[in-house]
Amino acid sequence: MKKISRAIISLTDKKGVAEFAKELANFGVEILSTGGTADVLKKAGIKVVNISDYTGFPEMLDGRVKTLHPKIAGGILGMRGKKEHCEQMEKHGILPIDMVVVNLYAFEDTIAKGASFEDAIENIDIGGPTMIRAAAKNYKDVAVVTDPNDYGKIIDEMKQNSGAVSDATKLYLAKRVFQLTARYDAAISNYLGSVEPKQDFPDTFSIQFKKAQDLRYGENPHQRAAFYRDLKIEEPCVSNARQLQGKELSFNNILDLNSAIELAKDFHEIACVIIKHNNPCGVAMSHTSLHDAYLKAYSCDKTSAFGGVVGFNRKVDAKIAQEMSKIFLEAVIAPGFAPGFDNDAIEILKNKNNLRLLEIETIPSHIAPPKTYEFKRVNGGLLIQTWDKASVTDLKTVTKREPSEKELEELLFAWKVCKHVKSNAIIFANNGQTIGIGAGQMSRIDSTRIGIMKATDAGFNVKGSVMASDAFFPFRDNVDKAAETGVTAIIQPGGSIRDEDVIKAADEHDIAMVFTGIRHFRH
After folding, report:
1. Which terminus of the chain has fewer CB atoms gathered within 10 Å of its CB, N or C?
2. Is residue 74 within 8 Å of 89, Cβ to Cβ?
3. Catalytic residues
4. Is 389 within a domain?
5. Residue-range definition of the domain harbouring residue 330
6. Per-residue pLDDT tens for 349-368?
7. How far is it, in rounded angstroms, from Cα 145 to Cα 152?
8. Surface-to-core class of residue 424, CB atoms within 10 Å of its CB (0-12 exposed, 13-18 middle, 19+ buried)
9. Could you tell me the pTM of the whole model?
């Protein structure tokens, strides 16, 4: 291993650079730097050689040209073990650069702030990617550092190796470079592909995820699987959750945990969600306590709740933990780092060693629609869509009878749940809880029948409940069936060619019906 003798430092994110550069200087490393970074280092009392003094050329063209010079590129790319390279470097006065410490213009942050097209273009880095790609290509001779979080690791290793960095670490750092530049170029490509003329989806689409963990297996034991995390997570979610206890997460656990917490987040009221096979089997809200919400959600379908995944939108306390400990659950997720479960709850649930407990950050009161897309993979292709975050803004009563205030509250509750149930989705609700859920059937009338059957099996009286449908009714049979069991109000999107027949049926049964104008299919 060869000692680091010369480093170039040029940074947009200058966090920790002064401390890092001081450590390099202690090893006798000569430091080359560009304008803004050089100023920071000089103020910290660190000896710096300006790039323009080193190359003999000034920074020019509004800073567009700073490091694009043979003395920089040659110093990075020259192979120290190749005689011809060494002779050419010596002939042209090119000194070897053994470390490149560079991060890139913040293009992604710039466009996220809604910058103009001209500002976005100016924040496309040229010199930075050139240097770090060159260093990564020549990783056997050059250590390339792009992340301030690696500074400590580098200095520790240099202390252990008399100022040198190991080949294994240099290879690790080189891999990180190409992961960074792949993401950076993808962001630029996606942005330019969606402007001039403006379009919702770029002509080509690139995205990068980072592996969070290998999974025991996929949906089934014979399938291999891994979990990858979005590098730009915008809100508390399962992808940035912290596991407190329990077995390693499985592929299906992650899907169910995501469904549980995303539905729980849709409620401002205290809420509990129980998921089984990626469908809600019980959902409830409460104006009094999380314990009340849990009991109501559990009572909806106690059979399906066995082996389910539970999501809360408030911190879990000992009282709820005691209730949950009575049955077998796969996982529980709750908000509020430090912690999402109080100490007494954790002590109770520790006795169930295999139960996975996860916490996310506190859920903000308002969550902006995500700027990312939702993906569905098909053989040979990728479907991309915006997330279904639409909310009801203009309910339209289409029947002679208006829903009462209580019915309207129940309808809106059922409508929120409906969005998270596989199509065809039918929800029966009363007193802020689901009492019957019909999910994923090929015909809507079958979903209606199943929802009624589930409610009856759970001991609920459907009479006096409300009903939600994720899409329009193709025939009046769903309304007639609901009327048989005493449903008093229905919420649905409307838009069927037989809407008049459906509304007529509701009027005949004195059922209040409202249209949302929004469909919530979930395939």
Report:
1. C
2. yes
3. 137, 277
4. no
5. 225-360
6. 998 989 999 999 988 877 87
7. 11
8. buried
9. 0.84
